[in-house]
Design goal:
single chain; 254 residues; alpha+beta; 2 domains; 5 helices; 21% strand
């Protein structure tokens, strides 16, 4: 890159950072004003949000702008939730790794309702936790949590998988996503827990999060229902309960 182009890029980044800081400061100011209300209630929050959207609608009468605002609000909310859970993920992964928790040697808690273990990957710095919850009486009760980190980027993915891969009938069978409508844990293993995309084309998609350096992360929740994301993160927190009050601990390495 020539010096002129580099200087232009740096100026654009600095301008974006300035706008981002201004928006962040404004958001914190609005949040402070709302949370300082003594009698804060769901009704008050609802009215405050409606008033905010009304103000934006008057500034930006384009309906699509409002829809984008709502989408970005949801995605920012779930990004904050993911960032709250990342330290827990690291803590649980380290505990499961130290205690040799694998598919045939799981941490189990409840009335044999929940099991957790880690899966190995040849990708450097990739951490994978698999969590199976049987108390929901559902078939889609296996969650995979995948974290990739390097000096620049953090990626965190949550997916639901099934006991067996289901594919589109009449189409060839491949060890990739092309014809899979529901992915199994085996399929993820075959792919080394590498995701070919993060735009929610498969039914097991829950969320994908990414963060560059120390900037605020972003989440693309795609078509995932809010309850699916909530349920997955709630299940992840449950590993802490398993560590504190286990039914069966993983057997130590011989």
């Amino acid at each position: 890159m020539n010096p002129e182009a580099l200087a232009k890029l740096i100026a654009q980044v600095e301008a974006w950072n300035k706008k981002e800081k201004e928006a962040t400061d404004l958001g914190k100011e609005l949040a402070t004003k709302i949370t300082d209300i003594g009698d804060f209630s769901t009704l008050y929050a609802s009215i405050a949000c409606s008033s905010f959207l009304d103000a934006v609608a008057q500034r930006e009468p384009d309906k699509e702008c409002i829809e984008l605002l709502l989408k970005w609000t949801f995605e920012n909310f779930w990004a904050l939730e993911v960032e709250r859970h990342l330290p827990l993920f690291d803590e649980y992964w380290e505990w499961l790794d130290i205690n040799n928790a694998r598919k045939d040697n799981t941490l189990t808690w409840g009335d044999i309702d929940c099991s957790a273990w880690i899966e190995t990957s040849t990708v450097p710095d990739r951490k994978v936790i698999v969590l199976e919850t049987r108390c929901a009486a559902r078939d889609d009760n296996i969650h995979i949590f995948i974290k990739d980190s390097d000096i620049i980027m953090d990626h965190f993915h949550v997916r639901t998988c099934w006991p067996r891969t289901q594919r589109v009938k009449g189409l060839p069978k491949h060890k990739n996503w092309t014809y899979a409508t529901k992915a199994s844990l085996t399929l993820y293993r075959d792919m080394n827990f590498s995701l070919n995309y993060g735009d929610s084309r498969d039914i097991g998609y829950c969320l994908s999060y990414e963060r560059m350096l120390n900037r605020r992360g972003t989440v693309d929740n795609g078509h995932a229902f809010m309850i699916d994301i909530y349920w997955a993160l709630w299940a992840l927190r449950g590993i802490g309960s398993g560590i504190q009050d286990p039914l069966y601990l993983p057997k130590a390495k011989k």
